[in-house]
From TrEMBL:
TM stretches of this protein: 21-40, 46-66, 114-139, 145-162, 183-207
Annotated CBS domain residues: 251-307
Family named by the database record: Belongs to the peptidase M50B family.
Binding positions for Zn(2+) per the UniProt entry: 66, 70, 165
Name of the protein in its database record: Zinc metalloprotease
Amino acid sequence: MGGEIRVGRIAGIDIKLHWSLLVIFALITWSLATGGFSGVQSSGTTAEWVAALIASVLFFGALLAHEIGHALVARRKGLEIQDITLWVFGGVSRLKGEAHTAADEFRIAVVGPVVSFGAAAIFAGLAFVLGALGAPALAVAVPTWLALINVVLAVFNMLPAFPLDGGRVLRAWLWKRRGDRTAATRTAAAVGRAFGFVLIGVGVFWFMTGNTINGLWFVVLGWFLFGAARAEESQSQLSRALHDVRVRHVMTPQPAVLPASMGVTDYIDHAMASRFTSFPVVDPTGRVVGLVTMRRVRAAMARGEEGSTLAHVALPIEQVPVLSPEDSATSLLEKLQGAPDGRALVFDRGALVGIVCPTDLQRMLELTTLRSDTGGRRT
């Protein structure tokens, strides 16, 4: 996603914050402190600002709990959790791979709204107790707002608009009924795009009738939903096209390697004389220790590190996705999700035999699409 800050780990899962979260956090706090609490006459006091700050923190805590619910159930179903990122539209649990069955898909999707409804019930109960004890109106208003916003979050996520949770529940149902995940994804994505268009239309109407802020939010949210549904559908089609393809069919074999002692300027000269810009980096014994790309070299030069060696610039081998030639192309896609440089190295019995770059995937996708169009089969 980019622009993320890692803030810690929960249950072994990396938790990250996107910079856009700061914007929405400030907006929520400001709106609550200046009259957003129901039943409280706002006067801009310090107490109201403190209450607004507490409410905002607890809201994002509940949002994090929503995503952790997804992640923990996914882990129980055998999926690897890459991380959880909170950002302007809520939260994203990044999983490596997809659910193995429609039932698993349903359970992973539905647990998030269940957690949100649970949080709403807890906050509603707290508001009731505080009210019964005669607590100040502001103290009651905070859990009351949190209960309401968590209900809104749960209901919104249960809309059958892929890739929202409700859209994933819809896909699970279609998958179970048809026995075809790709076809189910295609239908659910179409519904998601339709919802996106509806939100955009509502936003434009509100914008034209003077409700500028709400109109803008609906347009942005609708556009995001439309784009996300289309991206998920494309990913599903890609996985289907590559289902019988092996890494050896995708990779560029016998990639040229560069010594870890080579300088950044020498890399530039070497890359200019080659059609490649990504190279495995080896130590004096020939052992692969990393991967250097043009993006990393450019970043090093921007930091004034033109005199650095590739050992300093390269992505360490521990962070590079590694596969074997007989691994499936779909497993390659899974490993490339969130990979720092979008590239993978291929080893056979410990020896480097290939590299996979985005252009390799694009080439194979085009070829498999042609094969599908002609009805051909791999021999």
